[in-house]
Protein backbone atom coordinates (compact mmCIF):
# COMPACT_ATOMS: atom_id res chain seq x y z
CA UNK A 1 0.00 0.00 0.00
CA UNK A 2 2.89 2.34 0.85
CA UNK A 3 4.37 1.63 -2.52
CA UNK A 4 1.14 2.61 -4.27
CA UNK A 5 0.86 5.90 -2.34
CA UNK A 6 4.47 6.63 -3.10
CA UNK A 7 3.86 5.96 -6.80
CA UNK A 8 0.79 8.24 -6.99
CA UNK A 9 2.62 10.98 -5.11
CA UNK A 10 5.55 10.80 -7.50
CA UNK A 11 3.26 10.74 -10.53
CA UNK A 12 1.31 13.81 -9.30
CA UNK A 13 4.45 15.89 -8.89
CA UNK A 14 5.78 14.83 -12.27
CA UNK A 15 2.53 15.92 -13.96
CA UNK A 16 2.56 19.20 -12.03
CA UNK A 17 6.16 19.80 -12.98
CA UNK A 18 5.31 18.99 -16.58
CA UNK A 19 2.32 21.42 -16.62
CA UNK A 20 4.41 24.17 -15.02
CA UNK A 21 7.06 23.60 -17.63
CA UNK A 22 4.46 23.77 -20.38
CA UNK A 23 2.02 26.40 -18.90
CA UNK A 24 -0.05 26.77 -22.06
CA UNK A 25 -1.34 23.24 -21.44
CA UNK A 26 -3.05 24.53 -18.26
CA UNK A 27 -5.29 26.83 -20.34
CA UNK A 28 -6.15 24.06 -22.79
CA UNK A 29 -7.10 21.64 -20.01
CA UNK A 30 -9.27 24.22 -18.22
CA UNK A 31 -10.99 25.11 -21.51
CA UNK A 32 -11.68 21.45 -22.25
CA UNK A 33 -13.10 20.94 -18.80
CA UNK A 34 -15.38 24.02 -19.23
CA UNK A 35 -16.64 22.80 -22.60
CA UNK A 36 -17.24 19.38 -21.12
CA UNK A 37 -19.27 20.84 -18.25
CA UNK A 38 -21.34 23.05 -20.58
CA UNK A 39 -21.97 20.13 -22.89
CA UNK A 40 -23.07 17.92 -20.02
CA UNK A 41 -25.37 20.70 -18.72
CA UNK A 42 -26.86 21.24 -22.19
CA UNK A 43 -27.31 17.53 -22.59
CA UNK A 44 -29.08 17.44 -19.22
CA UNK A 45 -31.39 20.30 -20.25
CA UNK A 46 -32.07 18.58 -23.55
CA UNK A 47 -33.05 15.45 -21.71
CA UNK A 48 -35.33 17.47 -19.43
CA UNK A 49 -36.97 19.31 -22.34
CA UNK A 50 -37.51 16.07 -24.14
CA UNK A 51 -39.39 14.83 -21.09
CA UNK A 52 -43.14 15.45 -21.57
CA UNK A 53 -44.01 15.51 -17.87
CA UNK A 54 -41.30 18.10 -17.18
CA UNK A 55 -42.57 20.44 -19.93
CA UNK A 56 -46.20 20.11 -18.84
CA UNK A 57 -45.24 20.76 -15.22
CA UNK A 58 -43.35 23.95 -16.12
CA UNK A 59 -46.26 25.08 -18.30
CA UNK A 60 -48.69 24.51 -15.42
CA UNK A 61 -46.58 26.69 -13.11
CA UNK A 62 -46.66 29.48 -15.73
CA UNK A 63 -50.45 29.16 -15.88
CA UNK A 64 -50.84 29.38 -12.13
CA UNK A 65 -48.78 32.59 -12.11
CA UNK A 66 -50.63 33.86 -15.19
CA UNK A 67 -47.16 34.47 -16.61
CA UNK A 68 -47.60 34.77 -20.36
CA UNK A 69 -43.87 35.25 -20.96
CA UNK A 70 -43.03 31.96 -19.21
CA UNK A 71 -45.92 30.13 -20.88
CA UNK A 72 -44.66 31.19 -24.33
CA UNK A 73 -41.65 28.87 -23.94
CA UNK A 74 -43.94 25.86 -24.14
CA UNK A 75 -46.49 27.09 -26.66
CA UNK A 76 -46.69 27.38 -30.42
CA UNK A 77 -49.41 28.36 -32.89
CA UNK A 78 -50.30 26.20 -35.84
CA UNK A 79 -50.76 29.07 -38.29
CA UNK A 80 -47.56 30.84 -39.34
CA UNK A 81 -49.45 34.10 -40.00
CA UNK A 82 -49.43 34.91 -36.28
CA UNK A 83 -46.43 35.02 -33.98
CA UNK A 84 -47.30 34.32 -30.37
CA UNK A 85 -46.62 37.20 -28.00
CA UNK A 86 -47.45 37.77 -24.37
CA UNK A 87 -50.22 40.17 -25.47
CA UNK A 88 -52.05 38.03 -28.02
CA UNK A 89 -51.66 35.00 -25.74
CA UNK A 90 -53.54 36.66 -22.88
CA UNK A 91 -57.08 35.72 -24.11
CA UNK A 92 -56.04 32.03 -23.97
CA UNK A 93 -54.68 32.43 -20.44
CA UNK A 94 -57.82 34.33 -19.39
CA UNK A 95 -59.97 31.45 -20.59
CA UNK A 96 -57.87 28.72 -18.94
CA UNK A 97 -57.55 30.62 -15.66
CA UNK A 98 -61.27 31.33 -15.37
CA UNK A 99 -61.31 28.59 -12.71
CA UNK A 100 -58.78 26.21 -11.13
CA UNK A 101 -60.95 23.32 -12.34
CA UNK A 102 -60.57 24.38 -15.97
CA UNK A 103 -56.80 24.66 -15.55
CA UNK A 104 -56.67 21.23 -13.91
CA UNK A 105 -58.68 19.68 -16.76
CA UNK A 106 -56.26 21.11 -19.31
CA UNK A 107 -53.24 19.67 -17.53
CA UNK A 108 -54.94 16.28 -17.21
CA UNK A 109 -55.74 16.41 -20.91
CA UNK A 110 -52.12 17.23 -21.82
CA UNK A 111 -50.91 14.24 -19.79
CA UNK A 112 -53.29 11.94 -21.67
CA UNK A 113 -52.91 10.36 -25.10
CA UNK A 114 -55.89 12.44 -26.30
CA UNK A 115 -53.60 15.48 -26.45
CA UNK A 116 -51.70 13.87 -29.32
CA UNK A 117 -54.77 13.74 -31.57
CA UNK A 118 -55.98 16.37 -34.00
CA UNK A 119 -59.32 18.19 -33.57
CA UNK A 120 -58.87 19.75 -30.13
CA UNK A 121 -58.17 23.29 -28.95
CA UNK A 122 -54.53 22.37 -28.20
CA UNK A 123 -52.37 19.50 -29.41
CA UNK A 124 -49.18 18.19 -27.83
CA UNK A 125 -46.37 17.86 -30.37
CA UNK A 126 -42.62 17.30 -30.46
CA UNK A 127 -40.17 19.59 -32.19
CA UNK A 128 -36.63 18.61 -33.22
CA UNK A 129 -34.72 15.34 -32.70
CA UNK A 130 -33.20 13.71 -29.64
CA UNK A 131 -31.35 14.88 -27.64
CA UNK A 132 -32.71 18.29 -28.68
CA UNK A 133 -36.31 17.16 -28.99
CA UNK A 134 -38.84 19.48 -27.28
CA UNK A 135 -42.51 19.11 -26.38
CA UNK A 136 -44.67 21.99 -27.56
CA UNK A 137 -48.32 22.73 -26.81
CA UNK A 138 -49.66 23.79 -30.18
CA UNK A 139 -52.69 26.12 -30.14
CA UNK A 140 -55.12 25.46 -32.97
CA UNK A 141 -56.51 28.41 -34.99
CA UNK A 142 -60.12 29.52 -34.54
CA UNK A 143 -62.17 31.30 -37.22
CA UNK A 144 -65.01 33.76 -36.73
CA UNK A 145 -68.02 33.93 -39.03
CA UNK A 146 -69.18 37.48 -38.40
CA UNK A 147 -72.45 38.97 -39.64
CA UNK A 148 -74.15 42.30 -39.03
CA UNK A 149 -77.20 44.06 -40.38
CA UNK A 150 -75.78 47.46 -41.20
CA UNK A 151 -73.07 48.95 -43.38
CA UNK A 152 -70.13 50.78 -41.70
CA UNK A 153 -70.32 48.60 -38.59
CA UNK A 154 -66.90 48.22 -36.95
CA UNK A 155 -65.98 44.97 -35.20
CA UNK A 156 -63.59 45.07 -32.24
CA UNK A 157 -61.92 42.14 -30.50
CA UNK A 158 -60.50 43.17 -27.13
CA UNK A 159 -60.73 46.84 -28.21
CA UNK A 160 -58.72 46.21 -31.38
CA UNK A 161 -60.40 46.97 -34.72
CA UNK A 162 -60.78 43.64 -36.48
CA UNK A 163 -63.19 44.25 -39.35
CA UNK A 164 -65.64 46.77 -40.85
CA UNK A 165 -68.76 46.01 -42.87
CA UNK A 166 -68.97 47.60 -46.30
CA UNK A 167 -72.57 46.61 -47.11
CA UNK A 168 -75.91 46.09 -45.38
CA UNK A 169 -76.47 42.46 -44.44
CA UNK A 170 -72.70 41.96 -44.22
CA UNK A 171 -70.99 38.65 -43.40
CA UNK A 172 -67.33 37.62 -43.44
CA UNK A 173 -65.06 34.81 -42.27
CA UNK A 174 -62.27 36.15 -40.07
CA UNK A 175 -59.14 34.52 -38.75
CA UNK A 176 -56.97 32.81 -37.82
CA UNK A 177 -57.55 33.72 -34.18
CA UNK A 178 -55.78 32.40 -31.10
CA UNK A 179 -58.32 30.46 -29.01
CA UNK A 180 -59.46 32.10 -25.81
CA UNK A 181 -61.86 34.43 -24.09
CA UNK A 182 -62.60 37.70 -25.90
CA UNK A 183 -64.62 40.85 -25.54
CA UNK A 184 -66.38 41.51 -28.84
CA UNK A 185 -68.00 44.84 -29.71
CA UNK A 186 -69.67 46.36 -32.74
CA UNK A 187 -69.92 50.11 -33.24
CA UNK A 188 -72.09 51.94 -35.77
CA UNK A 189 -71.28 55.60 -36.39
CA UNK A 190 -72.92 57.79 -39.01
CA UNK A 191 -74.36 61.28 -39.47
CA UNK A 192 -77.18 60.47 -37.04
CA UNK A 193 -75.01 59.40 -34.10
CA UNK A 194 -73.37 56.30 -32.70
CA UNK A 195 -74.40 53.13 -30.89
CA UNK A 196 -72.58 50.09 -29.57
CA UNK A 197 -73.27 46.44 -28.80
CA UNK A 198 -70.85 44.24 -26.89
CA UNK A 199 -70.58 40.88 -25.18
CA UNK A 200 -68.06 38.31 -23.95
CA UNK A 201 -67.46 35.28 -26.16
CA UNK A 202 -65.29 32.17 -26.07
CA UNK A 203 -63.53 31.28 -29.32
CA UNK A 204 -62.26 27.77 -28.66
CA UNK A 205 -62.21 25.69 -31.82
CA UNK A 206 -63.36 25.50 -35.42
CA UNK A 207 -65.62 28.16 -36.97
CA UNK A 208 -67.68 30.25 -34.54
CA UNK A 209 -70.69 32.14 -35.88
CA UNK A 210 -71.36 35.53 -34.27
CA UNK A 211 -74.16 37.91 -35.26
CA UNK A 212 -73.94 41.21 -33.43
CA UNK A 213 -75.49 44.42 -34.74
CA UNK A 214 -75.40 47.65 -32.75
CA UNK A 215 -78.90 48.86 -31.82
CA UNK A 216 -80.17 50.82 -34.81
CA UNK A 217 -83.22 50.96 -37.03
CA UNK A 218 -84.67 52.42 -40.18
CA UNK A 219 -87.05 55.06 -38.87
CA UNK A 220 -90.44 56.36 -40.02
CA UNK A 221 -91.90 59.46 -38.39
CA UNK A 222 -95.46 60.67 -38.10
CA UNK A 223 -96.93 63.92 -36.82
CA UNK A 224 -99.89 66.26 -36.97
CA UNK A 225 -97.86 68.73 -39.06
CA UNK A 226 -96.24 66.78 -41.94
CA UNK A 227 -94.42 69.94 -43.12
CA UNK A 228 -92.49 70.25 -39.84
CA UNK A 229 -88.71 69.85 -40.09
CA UNK A 230 -87.00 67.04 -38.19
CA UNK A 231 -84.09 67.75 -35.84
CA UNK A 232 -81.72 65.12 -34.43
CA UNK A 233 -79.70 66.10 -31.38
CA UNK A 234 -80.95 69.66 -31.94
CA UNK A 235 -79.37 69.75 -35.41
CA UNK A 236 -81.56 70.23 -38.52
CA UNK A 237 -81.79 67.31 -40.93
CA UNK A 238 -83.49 69.29 -43.73
CA UNK A 239 -86.03 66.46 -43.84
CA UNK A 240 -89.73 67.05 -43.24
CA UNK A 241 -91.85 64.64 -41.23
CA UNK A 242 -93.77 63.63 -44.35
CA UNK A 243 -90.48 62.65 -46.04
CA UNK A 244 -88.92 60.94 -43.01
CA UNK A 245 -89.63 57.42 -44.25
CA UNK A 246 -87.23 54.50 -43.91
CA UNK A 247 -84.40 56.84 -42.89
CA UNK A 248 -81.27 55.41 -41.30
CA UNK A 249 -79.92 53.28 -39.92
CA UNK A 250 -80.33 55.53 -36.90
CA UNK A 251 -78.51 54.45 -33.72
CA UNK A 252 -80.95 53.68 -30.92
CA UNK A 253 -80.01 54.76 -27.41
CA UNK A 254 -81.06 57.15 -24.68
CA UNK A 255 -78.53 59.80 -25.64
CA UNK A 256 -79.77 60.90 -29.04
CA UNK A 257 -83.00 62.86 -29.33
CA UNK A 258 -85.35 63.76 -32.15
CA UNK A 259 -87.92 66.55 -32.38
CA UNK A 260 -89.73 68.56 -35.03
CA UNK A 261 -90.04 72.31 -35.54
CA UNK A 262 -92.74 74.21 -37.40
CA UNK A 263 -92.92 77.89 -38.26
CA UNK A 264 -96.32 79.54 -37.86
CA UNK A 265 -97.29 83.13 -38.62
CA UNK A 266 -97.03 83.89 -34.90
CA UNK A 267 -93.67 82.14 -34.41
CA UNK A 268 -91.84 78.82 -34.35
CA UNK A 269 -92.94 75.95 -32.10
CA UNK A 270 -91.34 72.59 -31.39
CA UNK A 271 -92.63 69.14 -30.58
CA UNK A 272 -91.74 67.09 -27.54
CA UNK A 273 -88.22 65.68 -27.69
CA UNK A 274 -88.06 61.91 -27.90
CA UNK A 275 -85.19 59.44 -27.78
CA UNK A 276 -84.61 56.76 -30.37
CA UNK A 277 -84.99 54.17 -27.62
CA UNK A 278 -88.74 54.85 -27.90
CA UNK A 279 -88.92 53.19 -31.31
CA UNK A 280 -91.05 52.14 -33.10
CA UNK A 281 -93.60 54.52 -31.53
CA UNK A 282 -92.20 57.80 -32.78
CA UNK A 283 -94.84 60.42 -33.42
CA UNK A 284 -93.86 64.07 -33.26
CA UNK A 285 -96.97 66.15 -32.71
CA UNK A 286 -96.71 69.92 -32.44
CA UNK A 287 -98.91 72.16 -30.35
CA UNK A 288 -99.06 75.52 -32.14
CA UNK A 289 -100.37 77.23 -28.99
CA UNK A 290 -97.46 79.21 -27.60
CA UNK A 291 -97.73 81.28 -24.43
CA UNK A 292 -97.70 84.44 -26.53
CA UNK A 293 -100.45 83.14 -28.80
CA UNK A 294 -102.56 82.07 -25.82
CA UNK A 295 -102.39 85.61 -24.45
CA UNK A 296 -103.43 86.99 -27.86
CA UNK A 297 -106.37 84.58 -28.13
CA UNK A 298 -107.57 85.31 -24.60
CA UNK A 299 -107.52 88.99 -25.39
CA UNK A 300 -109.59 88.41 -28.55
CA UNK A 301 -112.12 86.29 -26.64
CA UNK A 302 -112.41 88.84 -23.84
CA UNK A 303 -112.87 91.82 -26.15
CA UNK A 304 -115.37 89.91 -28.28
CA UNK A 305 -117.67 89.10 -25.35
CA UNK A 306 -117.27 92.48 -23.70
CA UNK A 307 -118.27 94.17 -26.95
CA UNK A 308 -121.07 91.62 -27.41
CA UNK A 309 -122.78 92.70 -24.16
CA UNK A 310 -122.28 96.35 -25.04
CA UNK A 311 -123.92 95.70 -28.42
CA UNK A 312 -126.88 94.01 -26.72
CA UNK A 313 -127.30 96.87 -24.24
CA UNK A 314 -127.10 99.48 -26.99
CA UNK A 315 -128.93 97.38 -29.55
CA UNK A 316 -126.16 97.94 -32.08
CA UNK A 317 -124.61 94.87 -33.72
CA UNK A 318 -121.81 96.93 -35.23
CA UNK A 319 -120.24 97.33 -31.79
CA UNK A 320 -119.18 93.65 -31.70
CA UNK A 321 -115.41 93.36 -32.16
CA UNK A 322 -113.24 90.58 -33.64
CA UNK A 323 -116.02 88.85 -35.51
CA UNK A 324 -117.19 88.24 -39.04
CA UNK A 325 -120.38 90.10 -39.96
CA UNK A 326 -122.27 86.82 -40.31
CA UNK A 327 -121.34 85.58 -36.82
CA UNK A 328 -121.96 89.01 -35.25
CA UNK A 329 -125.44 89.16 -36.65
CA UNK A 330 -126.21 85.54 -35.73
CA UNK A 331 -125.15 85.76 -32.10
CA UNK A 332 -126.73 89.21 -31.73
CA UNK A 333 -130.09 87.96 -33.03
CA UNK A 334 -129.93 84.94 -30.73
CA UNK A 335 -129.74 86.96 -27.51
CA UNK A 336 -131.23 90.42 -28.28
CA UNK A 337 -134.49 91.48 -26.65
CA UNK A 338 -137.32 92.43 -29.01
CA UNK A 339 -139.91 93.49 -26.42
CA UNK A 340 -141.20 97.03 -26.79
CA UNK A 341 -141.76 97.79 -23.07
CA UNK A 342 -139.79 95.20 -21.07
CA UNK A 343 -136.14 95.47 -21.95
CA UNK A 344 -133.10 93.45 -20.83
CA UNK A 345 -129.70 94.83 -20.04
CA UNK A 346 -126.50 92.90 -19.30
CA UNK A 347 -123.44 93.37 -17.15
CA UNK A 348 -120.58 90.90 -17.61
CA UNK A 349 -118.98 89.87 -14.34
CA UNK A 350 -116.34 87.31 -15.43
CA UNK A 351 -115.03 85.32 -18.35
CA UNK A 352 -113.17 82.05 -17.77
CA UNK A 353 -111.60 79.37 -19.96
CA UNK A 354 -111.92 75.75 -19.03
CA UNK A 355 -108.50 74.35 -18.16
CA UNK A 356 -106.58 73.22 -21.28
CA UNK A 357 -109.66 74.04 -23.34
CA UNK A 358 -107.92 76.38 -25.77
CA UNK A 359 -106.47 74.50 -28.70
CA UNK A 360 -105.20 75.41 -32.16
CA UNK A 361 -105.35 73.19 -35.22
CA UNK A 362 -105.33 73.43 -38.99
CA UNK A 363 -108.60 72.83 -40.78
CA UNK A 364 -108.68 73.00 -44.56
CA UNK A 365 -105.45 75.03 -44.54
CA UNK A 366 -107.01 77.52 -42.10
CA UNK A 367 -105.67 77.86 -38.54
CA UNK A 368 -108.49 77.64 -36.01
CA UNK A 369 -108.55 78.15 -32.26
CA UNK A 370 -111.19 76.45 -30.18
CA UNK A 371 -112.14 77.38 -26.62
CA UNK A 372 -114.89 76.56 -24.16
CA UNK A 373 -115.75 79.80 -22.38
CA UNK A 374 -117.82 80.26 -19.25
CA UNK A 375 -119.50 83.66 -18.87
CA UNK A 376 -120.90 85.01 -15.61
CA UNK A 377 -123.17 88.05 -15.97
CA UNK A 378 -126.15 89.88 -14.48
CA UNK A 379 -129.33 90.12 -16.48
CA UNK A 380 -131.51 93.04 -15.51
CA UNK A 381 -135.13 93.78 -16.42
CA UNK A 382 -136.05 97.39 -17.24
CA UNK A 383 -139.42 99.14 -17.79
CA UNK A 384 -139.13 102.36 -19.71
CA UNK A 385 -135.50 102.50 -18.67
CA UNK A 386 -136.10 101.82 -14.98
CA UNK A 387 -134.51 98.66 -13.54
CA UNK A 388 -136.64 96.53 -11.26
CA UNK A 389 -135.25 92.95 -11.37
CA UNK A 390 -131.64 91.70 -11.50
CA UNK A 391 -130.80 88.05 -11.97
CA UNK A 392 -127.33 86.38 -12.14
CA UNK A 393 -126.91 84.05 -15.09
CA UNK A 394 -124.17 82.07 -16.83
CA UNK A 395 -123.44 80.69 -20.27
CA UNK A 396 -121.00 78.09 -21.58
CA UNK A 397 -120.05 78.73 -25.16
CA UNK A 398 -117.83 76.94 -27.63
CA UNK A 399 -116.13 79.77 -29.44
CA UNK A 400 -114.02 79.17 -32.53
CA UNK A 401 -111.55 81.69 -33.89
CA UNK A 402 -110.12 81.62 -37.41
CA UNK A 403 -106.83 83.16 -38.46
CA UNK A 404 -106.89 85.74 -41.24
CA UNK A 405 -103.37 85.33 -42.60
CA UNK A 406 -103.70 88.22 -45.02
CA UNK A 407 -104.54 90.71 -42.27
CA UNK A 408 -102.66 88.87 -39.53
CA UNK A 409 -105.63 88.76 -37.17
CA UNK A 410 -107.89 86.32 -35.33
CA UNK A 411 -111.65 86.62 -35.56
CA UNK A 412 -114.67 84.74 -34.18
CA UNK A 413 -116.01 82.42 -36.87
CA UNK A 414 -118.40 80.24 -34.84
CA UNK A 415 -120.24 80.35 -31.50
CA UNK A 416 -122.18 77.39 -30.09
CA UNK A 417 -124.00 77.33 -26.78
CA UNK A 418 -123.24 74.33 -24.60
CA UNK A 419 -126.11 72.97 -22.52
CA UNK A 420 -125.45 72.40 -18.84
Question: What does it look like?
Answer:
The protein is built from 8 helices and 22 strands. The N and C termini lie far apart (about 145 Å). It has helices at about 1-20, 25-50, 50-65, 70, 90-95, 100-110, 290-315, 325-335, and strands at about 75, 120-125, 135-140, 140-150, 155, 160-165, 170-175, 180-190, 195-205, 205-210, 215-220, 230, 235-240, 245-250, 255-265, 265-270, 275, 340-355, 360-365, 365-385, 385-405, 410-415. Strands 12, 13, 15, 16 and 17 form a 5-stranded antiparallel β-sheet that branches. Strands 18, 19, 20, 21 and 22 form a 5-stranded antiparallel β-sheet that branches. Strands 6-5-8-9 form a 4-stranded antiparallel β-sheet. The chain is α+β, with helices and mostly antiparallel strands and about 425 residues long. Helices cover about 30% and strands about 40% of the residues.
Structural class of the helices, strands and pairings? alpha+beta
Low-confidence stretches: 40-50
Which percent range describes the beta-strand content? Answer: 35-45%
Order of helices and strands: HHHHEHHEEEEEEEEEEEEEEEEHHEEEEE
Number of strands: 22
In summary, what is this structure?
It is built from eight helices and 22 strands.
Task: Give the secondary structure arrangement, pairings included.
Elements: H1 2-21, H2 24-49, H3 52-64, H4 68-71, E1 75-77, H5 90-96, H6 100-110, E2 122-127, E3 134-139, E4 142-148, E5 153-157, E6 160-164, E7 170-177, E8 180-190, E9 193-203, E10 206-211, E11 216-219, E12 229-232, E13 235-240, E14 247-251, E15 257-264, E16 267-270, E17 274-275, H7 291-314, H8 325-335, E18 342-353, E19 359-363, E20 366-383, E21 386-404, E22 409-417
Parallel strand pairs: 1-3, 4-10
Antiparallel strand pairs: 2-3, 4-7, 5-6, 5-8, 8-9, 11-14, 12-13, 12-15, 15-16, 15-17, 18-20, 19-20, 20-21, 21-22
